[in-house]
């Protein structure tokens, strides 16, 4: 495959609205060449006998078991609130609504 050109990187930077100096564009073109070459190398490897994976290590859910527990009542939850109204926390308004 042909190398990533300075002009291609410049075009992509403009599409992404990223300001880059000529030196940064040249460096980025070089870095992208390495990435593309790596992907091409991996694409050429025989992978028919390798099963698809979503994670390289076979992990399962490591969270605790989802066990129902007794929760606070509405009154207990509101007991420490500085202000409550109609069984809900009352907080200062943050939006102006007309």
Automatic annotation (TrEMBL):
The keyword Aminoacyl-tRNA synthetase does not apply. It is an enzyme of class 6 (ligase). Gene3D superfamilies: Glu-tRNAGln amidotransferase C subunit, N-terminal domain. GO terms for biological process: regulation of translational fidelity; translation. Pfam families: GatC. InterPro entries: Asp/Glu-ADT_sf_sub_c, GatC. The keyword Protein biosynthesis applies. Allows the formation of correctly charged Asn-tRNA(Asn) or Gln-tRNA(Gln) through the transamidation of misacylated Asp-tRNA(Asn) or Glu-tRNA(Gln) in organisms which lack either or both of asparaginyl-tRNA or glutaminyl-tRNA synthetases. The reaction takes place in the presence of glutamine and ATP through an activated phospho-Asp-tRNA(Asn) or phospho-Glu-tRNA(Gln). This is Aspartyl/glutamyl-tRNA(Asn/Gln) amidotransferase subunit C. It comes from Rothia mucilaginosa M508.
């Amino acid at each position: 495959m042909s190398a990533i050109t300075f002009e291609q990187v410049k075009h992509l930077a403009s599409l992404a609205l990223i300001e880059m100096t000529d030196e940064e564009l040249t460096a980025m073109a070089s870095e992208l060449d390495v990435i593309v070459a790596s992907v091409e190398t991996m694409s050429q490897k025989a992978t028919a006998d390798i099963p698809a994976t979503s994670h390289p290590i076979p992990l399962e859910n490591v969270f605790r078991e989802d066990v129902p527990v007794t929760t606070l009542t509405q009154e207990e939850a509101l007991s420490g609130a500085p202000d409550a109204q109609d069984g809900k926390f009352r907080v200062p308004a943050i939006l102006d609504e007309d």
